[in-house]
């Protein structure tokens, strides 16, 4: 049975004429997820709505997507304008370098926009790319942890993107600040599909699940499995649901990035088929309520 209403818990919007999205501005450069050239063009809410078509998307969450530092707040302004004009995104997760001396001033600027709900500062995406910018070092940086704590006072959440080898170290950091709501992006970005790799990934998720204020977003799986099928996704999706339970799972498209590998319809139809044996209430949690409650979405 198809869910009656869905909130897409993870997608992106971008405006390339007015803002410098560093990775989208680089032409001919292969990324860890493949060749981005087909999506190196503006992506607005009308484009997003065209992509999701008849899938009953009633709300959505925009997650920051690599603008140059001087455009961090401008990205939030742009997404708010899109929401005001087109009804989405209903929640904004912006970028802020929480270790920067100007972080609190920038957070004030982000929070001037009513749909701002959280912050994402990527900890890990791919070993080769992370080695260039040393994002993994954030977990050992006291200023990062201090910055995370300030989000609690601001009633903001944190979207955590990282890779499986970082799960245990990150879990230690975030379990020490359990009042901070955390959303794990892309199920922790599993990339090693060997028996050992899957075992280590699941062990990291289980350790993280002990954090009492966390959800896990099932999204972005095409970035690491370009030729995915329902069967190839099955183990990852069902293991994640088993670890966190439906009450802490939210589905997201990761569009337009995952548009490189499949249509919106194919992506969400796969999610629906993989969860068809769950109860209507459990499906409602995973496709709607968890994202609505976590991001405080008003519809």
Task: Please specify the SSE layout and strand pairing.
Elements: E1 6-11, H1 22-25, H2 45-52, E2 57-63, H3 72-86, E3 91-94, H4 103-110, E4 116-120, H5 127-133, H6 142-153, E5 157-160, H7 167-175, E6 182-184, H8 195-208, E7 214-218, H9 230-244, E8 249-251, H10 264-274, H11 280-294
Parallel strand pairs: 1-2, 2-3, 3-4, 4-5, 5-6, 6-7, 7-8
Structure description:
The chain has one domain (6-294): Alpha-Beta Barrel (TIM Barrel), CATH 3.20.20.140. The model has no long low-confidence stretch (mean pLDDT 94). The chain is globular. The relative contact order is 0.16. With 299 residues, it is an alpha/beta fold. It has helices at residues 22-25, 45-52, 72-86, 103-110, 127-133, 142-153, 167-175, 195-208, 230-244, 264-274, 280-294; strands at residues 6-11, 57-63, 91-94, 116-120, 157-160, 182-184, 214-218, 249-251. Strands 1-2-3-4-5-6-7-8 form an 8-stranded parallel sheet. Helix 8 runs parallel beside helix 9. It has 11 helices and 8 strands.
* Topology, number of strands: 8
Determine the N-to-C terminus distance. Answer: 23 Å
Count of helical regions: 11
What is the residue-mean pLDDT, rounded to a whole number? Answer: 94
* Rg, alpha carbons: 18 Å
CATH class term: Alpha Beta
CATH-scheme architecture:
Alpha-Beta Barrel
């Amino acid at each position: 049975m198809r869910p009656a209403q869905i909130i897409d818990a993870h997608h992106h919007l971008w405006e390339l004429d007015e803002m410098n999205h560093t990775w989208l501005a680089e032409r001919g450069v292969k990324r860890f997820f493949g060749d981005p050239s087909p999506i190196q063009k503006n992506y607005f809410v009308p484009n997003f709505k065209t992509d999701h078509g008849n899938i009953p998307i009633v709300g959505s969450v925009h997650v920051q997507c690599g603008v140059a530092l001087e455009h961090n707040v401008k990205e939030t302004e742009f997404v708010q304008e899109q929401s005001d004009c087109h009804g989405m995104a209903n929640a904004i997760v912006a970028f802020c370098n929480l270790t920067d001396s100007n972080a609190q001033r920038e957070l004030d600027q982000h929070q001037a926009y009513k749909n701002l709900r959280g912050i994402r500062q990527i900890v890990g995406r791919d070993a080769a790319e992370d080695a260039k910018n040393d994002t993994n070092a954030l977990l050992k940086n006291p200023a990062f942890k201090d910055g995370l704590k300030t989000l609690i006072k601001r009633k903001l959440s944190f979207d955590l993107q990282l890779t499986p080898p970082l799960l245990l170290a990150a879990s230690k950091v975030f379990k020490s600040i359990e009042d901070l709501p955390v959303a794990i992006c892309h199920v922790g970005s599993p990339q090693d599909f060997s028996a050992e790799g899957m075992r280590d990934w699941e062990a990291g998720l289980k350790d993280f699940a002990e954090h009492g204020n966390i959800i896990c977003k099932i999204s972005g799986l095409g970035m690491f499995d370009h030729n995915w099928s329902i069967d190839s996704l099955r183990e990852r999706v069902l293991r994640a649901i088993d670890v966190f339970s439906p009450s802490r799972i939210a589905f997201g498209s990761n569009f337009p990035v995952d548009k490189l590998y499949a249509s919106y319809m194919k992506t969400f139809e796969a999610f629906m088929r993989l969860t068809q044996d769950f109860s209507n209430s459990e499906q409602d949690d995973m496709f709607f309520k968890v994202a609505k409650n976590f991001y405080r979405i008003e519809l």
